[in-house]
Amino acid sequence: MNIQETNDLSELKQVQDKLIEQNPQKYTRGTGYGIEKKIRLNSDLCVSLIWIYKFYRHSEFVDIENYYTKKDFFFDLGTSEHKSIIKNYTQLRHWDLIAPMPTHPTEIKHKRGWYGITDYGIKFCQRELAMPKYAIIQNNMAIKHITIPVMIDDVLRDSNLVYDDLININN
Predict the structure, then answer these.
(1) What sign does the CA torsion over 154, 158, 164, 167 have?
(2) pTM, whole model, 2 decimals?
(3) Comparing C-alpha atoms, which of 101, 114, 111, 93 is closest to residue 49?
(4) CA 88, 24, 137, 14 torsion-angle sign
(5) Fewer CB within 10 Å: C terminus or N terminus of the chain?
């Protein structure tokens, strides 16, 4: 490692330390490479999951075992007015509510942009189980959860949304 690389790493570490110091509720020091980031299971993610759930349940030629793209899941949702719902839906994977499509039998490789709903995703949508409210991610992978259990109704209620209105097939 040359002097320039060392200086670049030192500068990066200073920026990371500053982020952690300024936003301790959002960033923490990780045990591995990169910064740990705390993300919350919010109403936009829950609405995204409900839309994915409805796609699997009510689309005629959809197989529960297959993987689909964002375009498939949200085909009937206007992108401009519902940007916040569509934008971060892939974060649902940090709670194992959706899963990326595997492309290799023995290595961890996934097909970019293709996801499927998991059993946890279905059960969470059906109000059968609670999920941790927070996930701690590092290098875009969940490394732990903060176990404050929440049901989908609780998360939606925080944003004045009603589960029964969202799950309705006509929405």
Answers:
(1) negative
(2) 0.74
(3) 93
(4) positive
(5) N
